[in-house]
Design a protein that fits this description.
The complex is a heterodimer of chains A (542) and B (334). With 542 residues, chain A is of the alpha+beta class. Chain A is built from 16 helices and 17 strands. About 6% of the residues of chain A have low confidence. Classes of the chains: A alpha+beta (542), B mainly alpha (334). At the A-B interface, helix 1, helix 4, helix 6, strand 10 and helix 7 of A face helix 2, helix 3, helix 5, helix 7 and helix 8 of B.
């Protein structure tokens, strides 16, 4: 009797839920409506949309390896999130095609006062946010005030701004605290994306819309985020208020963590671009008839920090550091860690960025010279701690190769592998002798390398990870960062470069190639080394 | 029965307290500064201190713990450093995917494991026994990342029967959310498109995950069955002419199941926690992947939230196991 009672209760409950559910079937044909302008949402909200073929001519599917954190351009310093935000926002100026120079964006023209402190931008008319609100000077002011008020990552870059003034709806003026020539280039970076002031409608506890913008976009780019299924994919759709009419209407960024799964999906044409195929598996995709491998020089570099002031005392002698620079087999390391898809760096400013010096001195693999230098320095039986983590899988190989190379000249390396977070903490405190590192610029200016790496005011994680101090260099690079004449700047940077190369505070390993397997159907992709991992979606097609 | 439940719920509170204390301590011992992760490596010291203050990281540890517990009691697990969203919202979004995967894997482990265990016990020391042992042991000794890849290669790469990653095809809507379990929700809303599609996506990951648990179930069922079959009442039953399936299922299995339930129950707990690798390989948007990404970002609120949910899961499963015991054999007292 008892059993029967239970059964009837359960079955009537199921029936009731099923009946109420009938009208809400998310995939039933009668509710298929376009998903225009609806906010993005996390998993499973049962929204309605057309079930289009995922790989049609107007749909691009990009496989990426991990989900993203916040998408707020005023917060995120994570350049993998920028692949979503860059095409959804517009900036005052934009990087021009494949070049690291900037061109007009939201601003059609700009002028700089003689002292370099006042930058006036005249806006183009007709740009609209995805909700139809026109982009005006107020929005520009709002964006930069917001960044500075939030005071997270990008505020550091814009700390130089003293005030943003609205002159009229089409004119906005930036007053800087000091002359800062790279300013224009920073405006073309992701964090310069102009945000719709209406995000304040979504403000919670005075967060200036951070919670909302963490998973929504509010820009005037050619696309806007219409769906973010956490852990699965991002869906970008065309911004109907945008002045450009791209050929690709829908973009999916699919999260596929496993490289093997990605490779199979690429081979079968289920995805058009595979970002997560490691360099040691890249050869195999060359065999796919439907895939083309894009290979371009990048501005991403691999280097080693030599702790010049807080590490082993022997490293305070430039000769010892030079000896280490001569002891490494650069080509061998490139072949082992990058499968040959890289070139040895020449000086700290990579090729492709202005200020690069093709004549700069380059260390080569010369164990005998290394031994001589060590003898001259009077150093014997040197043992050094080599710090690295598993954050980059190839660091282990770099460590082992360096260990073998340095053993040849009589330097013993203790390999210290720690968790990435620990490694960062140890770098910041200078608790290492040698350490692996990667670096790529946020904006196209040698400032990103010279001033970050060598200024003695930025010891530790901030950039000068070699704890390198040279008063002459300090003066030169600080001066170079404070004048507008580009030839003069170039000259100063080159002089400083020669000194730091001689001082061997870093070991300049390699400048990586940008490698990307892409379906042959995809047309119009332009690679810009400043926008690595970011696609010119509005001008691409299939 | 009521007393058991009350006692266990009290225990649950104690466990939760212990877990929060441990995870909190651990997360504060690990070197690495979450504030630094937020502001980026090139931010100024000023900005860094400002964020530390915002997050309360400048307070003594015990004050931070006090605030954490106060918020926890109000149902607030804090804000994720990485996603900048409340951890509760993130976990609500990701937990159902993990639960669904674990439940189906559990189901597979039982429907394959129990018969296999019975077979091994009945045909003890024969070819069947040995084969079942090899099959089960190979599951527990093959790393999931390997078996997962092989499954993808065979069923997606060569045969093209199942999709490789994700929970649904792109372009298919998730069913209207009731429980968050796609299979359940699509049945409830009669959404057969979503049902078929999500079933297609979950089968290989669930089989992969269950394969690793199979040995536990099979070996336990085999051992208990052998023990039960050797007992006097079974011999009496046989002497009375009872044999075949009726003897096995009507008499022996019921008793053999009692110790099995403990093992199986706990194995479900480890399915929940251990789905991390499976989720990574199959691009399954569950809690496992969420927590792995959080660890890389030193996202302490997210990690602690995850640990808390798994710990509560374990305790609740234990409770269910004990209640099932009680129902199977009312002679067992608390």
């Amino acid at each position: 009797m008892k059993k029967v009672k239970w059964l009837s209760v359960v079955s009537s409950l199921v029936l009731a839920i099923a009946l109420t559910g009938c009208g809400q079937n998310a995939n039933s044909p009668q509710v298929q409506t376009p998903s225009e302008q609806k906010p993005a949402d996390s998993a499973g909200s049962g929204e309605t949309q057309t079930t289009e073929s995922p790989n049609g001519k107007d749909t691009l599917v990009v496989a990426m390896t991990a989900d993203q954190g916040t998408l707020d351009p005023g917060v995120s310093m994570d350049n993998s999130a920028w692949k979503i935000t860059y095409p959804t926002y517009e900036r005052l100026v934009e990087y021009d095609g494949a070049s690291t120079e900037v061109k007009a964006g939201l601003a059609k023209e700009w002028k700089i006062s003689d002292d370099g402190l006042t930058w006036t931008f005249i806006l183009n008319e007709g740009h609209k946010f995805a909700d139809g609100t026109p982009v005006d000077a107020e929005a520009v002011k709002f964006t930069f005030d917001r960044i500075l008020k939030i005071a997270k990552g990008p505020s550091d870059v814009y700390g130089v701004i003293s005030e943003v003034k609205v002159e009229n709806p089409n004119t906005v003026v930036f007053v800087l605290k000091e002359n800062f020539p790279p300013f224009l280039s920073t405006l073309a970076a992701n964090y310069g994306g102009i945000v719709n002031p209406k995000v304040l409608d979504h403000e919670q506890n005075g967060d200036l819309g951070q919670n909302y913008l963490a998973s929504n976009t509010a820009g005037s780019g050619a696309y806007h985020l219409t769906e973010w299924k956490k852990g699965e994919y991002f869906k970008l759709e065309q911004n109907s208020h945008s002045s450009v009419q791209p050929s690709l209407k829908t973009i999916y960024f699919r999260i596929v963590g496993d490289p093997s799964a990605q490779r199979l999906q690429l081979e079968k044409g289920e995805i058009d671009i595979a970002e997560g195929i490691p360099v040691d598996q890249i050869e195999s995709v060359k065999a796919f008839s439907n895939v083309e491998l894009i290979q371009q020089p990048s501005l991403a570099v691999d280097y080693l920090y030599v702790n010049t002031s807080q590490g082993n005392p022997a490293l305070q002698n430039a000769k010892v550091r030079q000896a280490i620079s001569y002891a490494l087999d650069y080509q061998g390391i490139i072949d082992a860690t990058q499968q040959g898809y890289a070139t040895q760096m020449r000086g700290p400013i990579p090729k492709g960025l202005w200020g690069h010096d093709e004549q700069a001195m380059q260390y080569s693999y010369d164990p005998n010279k290394a031994k001589e230098l060590l003898a001259e320095a009077g150093v014997k039986d040197l043992t050094l701690d080599f710090l690295y983590s598993d954050n980059k899988p190839f660091w282990e190989t770099t460590a082992l190769m360096a260990q073998a190379n340095l053993a040849e000249v009589g330097i013993k390396l203790n390999l210290k592998k720690v968790a990435y977070a620990t490694m960062r903490e140890m770098i910041d405190k200078g608790e290492f002798d040698l350490c692996t590192g990667v670096w790529s610029p946020d904006f196209a200016d040698p400032f990103m390398f010279m001033n970050y790496w060598f200024d003695s005011n930025s010891f530790g994680l901030a950039g000068n990870r070699a704890f390198y101090k040279n008063d002459e260099v300090d003066q030169m690079i600080r001066k170079a960062a404070s004048i507008n004449n580009i030839d003069e700047r170039k000259n100063l940077y080159q002089q400083a470069q020669n000194i730091v190369i001689e001082d061997a505070a870093y070991i300049y390993l390699d400048q990586k190639d940008f490698l990307l397997p892409m379906s042959k159907e995809v047309k119009g992709f332009t690679y810009n080394p400043m926008l690595e991992g970011i696609y010119n979606l509005a001008t691409m097609s299939k | 029965m009521k007393r058991i439940i009350m006692k266990r719920l009290a225990l649950l509170l104690l466990v939760v307290f212990g877990v929060t204390l441990t995870t909190f301590m651990i997360s504060h011992i690990i070197p690495g500064d979450p504030a630094r992760m937020i502001v980026g490596q090139r931010a100024t010291e000023e900005t860094l201190q400002q964020v530390r203050k915002q997050l309360g990281l400048d307070q003594p540890v015990w004050v931070q713990y006090f605030h954490y517990m106060k918020d926890l009691l109000a149902g607030d697990l804090g804000t994720s450093i990485r996603t900048q969203k409340p951890v509760v919202d993130d976990l609500i979004a990701f937990f159902p995917a993990t639960l669904e995967l674990a439940l189906l894997a559990f189901f597979f482990a039982i429907i394959i494991g129990v018969p296999l265990g019975i077979l091994a016990a009945v045909k003890k020391d024969t070819f069947w026994d040995h084969s079942s042992r090899v099959f089960a042991i190979s599951g527990v000794s093959t790393p999931v990342f390997w078996s997962g890849l092989v499954m993808i290669l065979i069923f997606y790469g060569y045969l093209n029967w199942f999709p490789a990653t994700g929970r649904l095809d792109i372009g298919i809507n998730p069913p209207t959310r009731i429980t968050g379990l796609y299979l359940v929700d699509s049945i409830l809303t009669l959404d057969w498109i979503a049902f078929k599609n999500s079933l297609w996506h979950i089968i290989i990951p669930a089989i992969t995950l269950s394969y690793a648990q199979l040995a536990t179930v099979t070996r336990q069922v085999r051992a208990s069955m052998i023990e039960v079959l050797g007992q006097e009442y079974i011999r009496t039953a046989v002497a009375n002419g009872i044999s075949g399936p009726f003897l096995l299922f009507g008499y022996a299995l019921r008793n053999a199941l009692i110790p099995t339930i403990t093992v199986v129950g706990l194995s479900f707990g480890s399915l929940l926690g251990g789905a991390v690798v499976t989720e990574t390989i199959f691009g399954w948007p569950g809690m496992g992947k969420y927590v792995v990404e959080s660890i890389a970002y030193l996202d302490f609120p997210a990690m602690m939230g995850f640990t808390l949910v798994i710990a509560c899961g374990y305790v609740l499963i234990n409770l269910i196991v004990d209640l099932t015991y009680y129902m199977l054999d009312p002679q067992i007292k608390e």
